Amino acid sequence: xxxxxxxxxxxxxxxxxxxxxxxxxxxxxxxxxxxxxxxxxxxxxxxxxxxxxxxxxxxxxxxxxxxxxxxxxxxxxxxxxxxxxxxxxxxxxxxxxxxxxxxxxxxxxxxxxxxxxxxxxxxxxxxxxxxxxxxxxxxxxxxxxxxxxxxxxxxxxxxxxxxxxxxxxxxxxxxxxxxxxxxxxxxxxxxxxxxxxxxxxxxxxxxxxxxxxxxxxxxxxxxxxxxxxxxxxxxxxxxxxxxxxxxxxxxxxxxxxxxxxxxxxxxxxxxxxxxxxxxxxxxxxxxxxxxxxxxxxxxxxxxxxxxxxxxxxxxxxxxxxxxxxxxxxxxxxxxxxxxxxxxxxxxxxxxxxxxxxxxxxxxxxxxxxxxxxxxxxxxxxxxxxxxxxxxxxxxxxxxxxxxxxxxxxxxxxxxxxxxxxxxxxxxxxxxxxxxxxxxxxxxxxxxxxxxxxxxxxxxxxxxxxxxxxxxxxxxxxxxxxxxxxxxxxxxxxxxxxxxxxxxxxxxxxxxxxxxxxxxxxxxxxxxxxxxxxxxxxxxxxxxxxxxxxxxxxxxxxxxxxxxxxxxxxxxxxxxxxxxxxxxxxxxxxxxxxxxxxxxxxxxxxxxxxxxxxxxxxxxxxxxxxxxxxxxxxxxxxxxxxxxxxxxxxxxxxxxxxxxxxxxxxxxx
Length: 668
Description:
Blueprint: E1 27-28, E2 146-147, E3 178-179, E4 205-210, E5 226-234, E6 238-243, E7 246-247, E8 264-272, E9 279-287, E10 292-300, E11 312-317, E12 326-334, E13 346-347, E14 353-355, E15 363-372, H1 381-394, E16 400-404, E17 409-412, H2 422-439, E18 445-451, H3 457-461, E19 465-466, E20 468-469, E21 482-486, H4 492-503, E22 524-525, E23 528-529, E24 535-536, E25 545-546, E26 552-553, E27 561-562, H5 565-578, E28 589-597, E29 600-603, E30 607-611, E31 616-623, E32 629-639, E33 645-649, E34 658-661, E35 664-667
Helix pairs in contact: 1-4
C-alpha cells in the first residue's frame, strides 16, 4: 500500500508538493510526520503522489513512486499492444499496421512475394533454394523473378503520433521491390525506400513482414567494420541472449524469463572498429524458422553503450511473435557501399538460435467503482486503457484483460477527513472482498475497487492520505485477490500495479520506510531496493533504458520506480500457478471475518457461502460471558499492505460470547 502510517502497505507520508506518482496504500502528508487518524502503528514511508501543492509544507518521508508511473500517457487505443506491428500481407499494404507501445509509424509495406527473393539461406519465394553456407545467398534458380506482385503503394499503417520511437517504417513500397530472379545474389530484393517514419534515438526505423522477407531498402551485403557484441530481449527489462558470439541462457540472475505473448524489443549491440565510417545500416531479425522478419535501420557512428539507445539496433516485436519454441537469427547489412574489415555480423553464423520462453497467460482484472463521501468515480474506457497499458508494460503477462463493472460498491466511509484512517480503508477493502465473493468470478480474476472521495487529489490528500490497500494474499486465498485504490488520473495505474502486487502475495521491497520489507530482496544499496536489471517501458514514445543503479523497485516506497527482475519473476510464478488452475485447500465452511487495526478489532462482512480457510493459521480463544476461556480454536490471518489484518474465524456455537485473537477480544 502507499500510505503514511507504519502500516504494512504502500503507506507513505508524503507532502503533496514534489511527490511523484502514488503507489497503492501509500500515505501522503504535509506538515511533518503524521500519525494518521484511525490510529496507525507508526510507520512512515510509502509512496508519494505527484503534483499538488501542500497546504503546510512539512518534510516528506518515504519517497515518491517513480516514473514508470506515468501511466495514462502514451497508451495505445488497445492498451498499447499491437497485434501485428507492421506485418505485411501479400505484396502491399500492412495487415494491421499500427504502432505498439506508442510512437513510430506502422507497417513496412511492399514485400516482394515472388521472384527469387532469398536471405539468410532461406528459400526464394518462387525461385529455388539458396545453397551457400553461412546463411548468405548462393546461386538460386530464378523461378518467377521479375516484379513481385506489383506491390502498390503503402496506404494502411499510417504514421504514429510521436516521432522518435523505434516504430515500424511506413512510407511507400515503390513497386513492391524488383527481384533479380535467379541471379548469383539469390534474388536480392531491391525494394522501395524505407519510408518516412522518424526513428527512435539514433534515427532508427523498423519494419516487420511475414513470409521471411524484409523490405528495409538496404542491400544483402553484410556490414563491414563492426561486429555484433550482444543481443538482448527486453519486455520489462534486459534478458541477454547472446554475448561475444556465444548464446546465453535467456534468463536473469533472479530467474526472469522471456514471456510468451508479451511485446518485446530485440536490441542488437555493436562494437565498431577504429576509424569506422558513420553510416546508415540495417539489422534484420528473423523469427520462428524465418517465418517472420523485422528490421531496424539506424545510423551507427560508435560502439553501443548500455543506457543510450543510439548506436544500437532496437527492433520492436509484437507479442504474437513471441511463441513457444522461439528461434531467431540476426544480421547487420549495408544500406549503401561500405568499407572496413569484414567481421560477418551474423548470429548465428548458420542456422538459427533457440530461445526458451515462459507461458504465463493473461492478468485478469475486474475494476469496480466504490461510492464514498457521496462520490462515485466514473470509470470509462480511458481509465481502463491506462490501467491496461501500465500492467501490459510492467507485468510478466501476455496481456491485461480489464473488465469494467458498472455497479458500485457502497457503504464506504473514506473521505478527506478519513483519508489517513486505516480503519476506514480496511473496512472498505472488506466490502470489495465481499463483492468478489458474491460475484464468484474465476479463480484467477483480481478485483480492483476504485474510490475517489473528492473532486481532486489536492482536496482529498491536503493533509495526508492513504492511496491504496490490498491483502498480502496467499496462493490459495481467492477471496483476497482484491485491491482498493484512489482513482485520480495520473496516479491510479502505478498505485494499482503496486497494490495488485500485494494481492499476488508480494511483500514490500526495502527502502524509504517501507513497512515489513521482503528480507530476501537481492538488490539493496543504502537501504533501498533497486531494480537489478536494465529496465524498459514500452509505453515510452522514444526508446529509453532505465539505469539499475538509479531506479528502485515498484514494491518499495522510493523513486524513481520500475520493476526488478526479482519481483518480475515472483509475479510470473504466481500468474503461472493461478492461470487456468482451481486451487483449493481444506474443507469449505462459512466464516466470520474479524478486522484488526490500530483501534482494535471489529467485525467484517460474514462469509455465507462455504469456502476453505484462507491465510496463516493462528491460535484463538473462545470466551464465555465472564471472560473465561471455553475452548481453543484456530483462526486464519491475512495481513494487509497497510499493517491491518483480516481473520477468518468459525461461526459462534451456543455459549460462545467472545473471541480473543490477535491483539484483542471481540464479542460475538
